[in-house]
C-alpha cells in the first residue's frame, strides 16, 4: 500500500484502533451511485462499501422503510417472537434452496453460524468425531478467530496464538486435493463461489458440482460463503443459482441490508435440525429494524427483471473493460468475475492504479494478485457505466504516460 493511500492524520484518529489503512478522503452524503467528498469532489462509487450498498446511497424506498419501522420498534430480544424475522426468512426461503434461516449481524457471524450448524449436524447424526471443515487457500471468511483459521491466511493469523483447530486448507480449485483430505473427521466443505479478496477467482460450475458430489458420497455438508457474491452481486440472487449447484448451508451478509448491519445463515431443514434451543444465539441478530430494511432490499433485488438488468449492464461494463485492456495493456491486463463483482488485473502496481482512479473521481477496492475490484451498485445506469469507463480510460492514459517517467511512478501521485 502506498504512503499516499494509507495517509491519515494521527491527531484526528488518535482514539481509534490503528487497525485500518484509511484513504485520505471522507464523505458528507451520497445519492444513488455517487458519494460527495469533504474535498468538494463528487465520486462515482464503484466500491459500495466493499459490495454492500448494492442499491446505492439514499435509496428512497429503504429510507421510507427505515423511518416507518424506526418509529414503531427498533429492538426486542430473541426471547420473544419477532414477526419481521418470520417474514424475511419466508422470503429468503421462497427464493432459495433453504428451509431455515438464522439472523445475525455480520458476514463473520454468518460463517460462524454455518460452521456450528455443520458440526452440530454431524453430532446429532451420530458422528461427533466429524468436526473438521475443508476450505481453500486464498479464502476470506471473516476476522473472528474461527473464520481466520478457516481462511488459513498467514497475514491474518499472525500474532493471535495457535489457530483455531478443525480446518484443512487445500490449494484453490484443487478438487482432487479436497477429495484427498476428506477423512473420518471431516464434517463439511466451505468455499466461496468467487473469491473476492484474493483477486476475484471463480470456481467453475463443474468444480462446484464435483464438491457437491464429494459431499453426497461422504455424507458431508456443502457450505457456500456468499457474503460477497450474494444479494444480486453476480446477476443472480445468489451465485450458486447460476452454477445450479445447491449447498446445504449458505452465509449471506454485505448487500443484505444495503449498509444496515444484518446477516443470515441459510440452511436446509436437515442441516439445521441440530440447532435446537441453546445451541446458538445473538442479542442484536434479527432485530425488527434490520429485518424491515433487509426485507425491502430482498424484495427489490430478487425481482427477475431487476436481476436481468444487472446481467445486461454487467455485459456492457465487461465489454468496455476488455476494450481498455486492449487499449492500455501496460496498465490493465485481464478482466475477471461475474455480474458486478469484477476484478481488473493490473500491469502497473494496483495501489497506484487505484489511487489514480480516485484522483479521477472513481472509487475502487484493492484485492490480491495485483487486482483492483469494481463493485458498483446493482442499479447502475448505462450512463454511469460509460462514465466509469471514461474515468478508467483517463487512468490508463495517465499511467501509460507515467510509465515513461519513472519519477512520477515512484511518487505514485498521478
Summarize the structure in words.
With 414 residues, this protein is of the alpha/beta class. It is 41% helix and 18% strand. The chain has 17 helices and 17 strands. The chain has helices at 3-6, 10-13, 48-51, 60-70, 83-94, 107-124, 145-151, 154-157, 175-181, 205-218, 240-243, 269-272, 288-301, 304-327, 350-359, 382-402, 406-411; strands spanning 27-31, 34-37, 42-45, 100-104, 132-136, 167-170, 186-191, 194-195, 201-202, 221-225, 249-252, 263-267, 332-338, 341-346, 362-363, 365-367, 371-374. It has a 7-stranded mixed beta sheet, sandwiched between helices. A 4-stranded mixed beta sheet has the order 1-2-3-15. Helix 4 (60-70) packs antiparallel against helix 13 and helix 14 runs parallel beside helix 16 (382-402). The longest helix has 24 residues, at 304-327. The protein is globular, with a radius of gyration of 22 Å. The two termini are 15 Å apart. 49% of the residues are buried. The model is unreliable at 1-11 (pLDDT under 50).
